[in-house]
Structures are given as C-alpha cells and as structure tokens.
Amino acid sequence: MLIDSTVAFCATDMTLIKKIIDEGRGVVVVANKWDMVQDKFKKKAVKWMDKQLEKGLGQAKGIPIAYISAKTGHRSDRIMDEVLRVYEKWNTRVSTGLLNKWIHAFSKVQKLPATDGKMLKMRYLMQIKVRPPTFFLYVNNKKLMTDNFEHFMRNSISKEFGFIGVPIRVLIRDSRTQYANKKLS
To answer: Which of 17, 45, 76, 114 is 20 to 30 Å from 180 at the Cα level?
Structure first.
C-alpha cells in the first residue's frame, strides 16, 4: 500500500488497508516522499503513523512501514525485504503441539471470562490453514467467549508466534456441540 508521507494516512488509505486485511492478505505500507519530511520531524512522523495504524486497525498488529523516496531512491531497497518477511509470515504454519503448550500456559496466567459461575476453558488450539493463518480454538462453551477476549486471544497469538503485518483468523468451536453432532451421526 503506497501512501504520501507528507499527509500520512487519509480516510481512503485506511479504508483500503482495512479491505486488504479483511481479504486475509498481508500488508506492507510504503510511505513515499520521505525526503520531503524535515529531519527534525521524522521521529514524530514515524510515531504518528504507527499510532494511526494501531488505532485504525485492530486486527493486524505491527504492520511494517517502509519510509522511502521514489525521487532519490532513498531506502527503496527495504520494500522487498518487508514484503518477503510479511509473505513468509503469511505462509507460516505452527505445529499443533506448540500451539497447545502455549494455550495451556496462556490459560494459567490469564483471567478467563466467566458468567453465572461458569468459566471458559480453552481445550485445544490448532492451525487449519495458512494464507491467512487460520486457527480453530476449541472451548467448553462458546457463549462464554466475549468479543473483547476473542480480540485479545487473536492479538496474543499474533504476538506470540510473530504474525506481524499479517491478519490471523481464530474460529471458536464449542466442544459440546462437536460431541453432540458426533452422537447424532
């Protein structure tokens, strides 16, 4: 995604990036005209753009931004490095054993949602797909999974396994429903 560094992200830029993420694609932002930003404002500009992305996009954390100048060629060689890194993460598969070790440790240190004396139990986590990385999380009762906790889980998986700049999907499965359907078969 190419943007103009002198104006940062406009509404159209954010809409396009959201659409890319919704499609399950990895994103690298290329901020052109970096040579036109005064040196004394560059650190503030980087912080500002990172903050805009973080605030505007909850699903994909840490989208890389390559600050370049097409006119001078400054830092343009970094674009492909970032693209290849994001592409590699988009194609990453994490073993079920590693995921379940992590989910077990995660369950011990995090306060899990509870309602009416019933607490969410995360039973099993497995990756079912790459491009984008998609996971099944089996829980004791899907109704106990709040939207906030689901968002937190997605971010935690992304951070733990390095899916930076790549949207991931977590599908919640209710183990009670799974077993009930097996009995009907």
So the answer is: 114
Q: pLDDT band for position 164 (50/70/90)? A: confident
Q: What are the domain boundaries of the chain?
A: 2-90, 96-184
Q: What's the confidence (pLDDT) of residue 185?
A: 45
CB atoms within 10 A of CB 171: 11
Angle at which helices 11-22 and 42-56 cross, to 10°: 50
Question: Per residue in 52-91, pLDDT tens?
Answer: 888 877 656 678 999 999 999 999 998 999 999 999 999 9
Alpha carbon distances (Å) from 29 to 7, 43, 115, 127 = 14, 17, 41, 27
Are the C-beta atoms of residues 65 and 29 closer than 8 Å to each other?
A: yes
The sheet that has 65-67: what strands, in order across it?
A: 2-4, 29-32, 65-67
Level-2 CATH architecture, domain 96-184: 2-Layer Sandwich (3.30)
Quick one: fold of 2-90?
Rossmann fold (3.40.50)
Amino acid at 39: D
